[in-house]
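Re: beginner question about structure tokens

> Can someone show what the tokenized structure looks like for a real chain? I only ever see the sequence side.

Sure, here's an example I had lying around. Input first:
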Amino acid sequence: MLERTAQGDDSRDRDRDRDRVAQEITGRLATRGVEVRDSDGRDDVTTMADAVERFEEQVFALGGDLMVDEPPPGQAGRPDDARFQLPLRRADESAAEYARRLDQASRELRKHRRDL
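And the corresponding structure tokens:
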């Protein structure tokens, strides 16, 4: 009986840790202007964050500066290169669809790198 209770406590602790991490990632996404919705689960948040990171890696590889290319939240941006501006999530777009679109934008940037 004690063993089951300990396992249950471990499971709740892991869930709390995962929720905390998802909240931290949600905050980071918000600073980049990426909308995380109440219907998005922890896996959705992680998927979007991974896609944002891949996009940013390609921007850096091409010499982009996200501090210059990303507008402050709620403001229109004027990036040095429009391709370097992080695409925003559309109102009708699921987290998975948004991540796929970001990955496509990352592939386009990577292709441009090879063409240089």
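Each token stands for a local structural state, so reading them left to right follows the chain. The chain has a mean pLDDT of 84.
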